[in-house]
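Here is a complete protein record:
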Amino acid sequence: IHERNGNRMKRWLSLALSTVWLLGATACVNHASSQSTYPIETTSAAVQESTFVADVQEPSKFQRASLPDKSMPKSYKNMTPDTYEGKTFEELQQESIDLYDKDYLNWNSNVMPSPDNNKVAYLSNKHDLKSLTSALFVYDPASGVETKLTHGTDAAYMIIGWLNSSSLIGQKVLDSSTTWVVIGLDGKETELELEGESPYIYAVQDGLIAYATALSSGEIHILRINDAGSFEEIYSVNLPGTTRLREGQGFSNDNSYFAFLYVPDAEPEERYMKVIDLHSNNVIDIDSFPEEVYESAVYLEFTWTDNHTLLLTIHEDVSGSERLSAWSYSLD
C-alpha cells in the first residue's frame, strides 16, 4: 500500500495488526438473532465517551453478532494420506535432513476441499526433494487414491480454488512469469487470458471467478468459466479507488452477490463495503455504520454467513484505544 503521509501509514499498520488478531476471533462467529447481546469486540485501553456516528444505515440492517453453540460433538478424520510411495512423513523428513542438514519437506500445504467435499487438493514437494518444487496433488479419502496433477520440476503453483468438482484454478510461476491456469483432474492445464498487465484473481466459486486487473485495482471483472477455460464476462466495473479482499471471500453462498472492501480515492483513510447483485447488476453501497459505533469506524474484514447476510468486522479508534466488533448485515 502506497501511503501519502506518516499518519496514514500508522493507521493502516494498526489495521493490519488488528486483522491478524481478528482472524481467530471471527472464524467462529455466526449470524445472530435479533435478541443477541454479545458482540465480539476488544479494547486496548478503557473506552471513554465519544461522539456517535450521525450517518446511520437502517437499524434493521445491522445486528450484533454472538458466539455459536460449542456443545456439538467433535470427531476427526484424516483427509490426506499417511504415506507417499510407501514412505512415511518421518522417513521423507529424514531424507531432507540427509540432503540439506535441514527439514525442507512440505508434506501438504494450501489445502482446499472440493465443492462436493469428496476430494482434497494440496501442494507438496514430497515427490522430489532434490528440486524442492511443490506439485499439485488431489486425494480421494474414500478410495485412498492420491493423484499428482502437475509434473514439471521448474514451475511453482498456488491453488486459488476449485472452479467446480472436476477442475481447479491455480497461479503458475515459471521463469519469473506468472499465469493463471485451469487444471483438470486429468492434469490438463489451460491458461486463462485475463485483462491487465498483472491480473489478480480474488475469488473462485461454482464456475465463477472475480479478478482485478492488478492487485488492489478498482477495475474488477466477474467471469463464468468452463473446464476448457472458455469464459463469458457477466459483470465488470471500474471504480475510482482501490479494492481489498482476502482470497475466497467475495461470492455469497448461492452466487447471488459479490462483495469487497473499497477505499475511495477521494477518502483514502476510509474503508467501506460494496456488494454487487449479480442478478440485477446493481451495486449496493455499505458506507455507513451502526449507531452504536464511533465516527472513527472503518470496515476491516467480512465474511458471508448465509446467502444474504454479511458478518462485518468494524475497527474503531476511541480516545487513543482500538476496538474491534462484529456485526451482521442483512441485504434483505
About this structure: The longest strand covers residues 309-318. The helical segments are 6-26, 89-100.
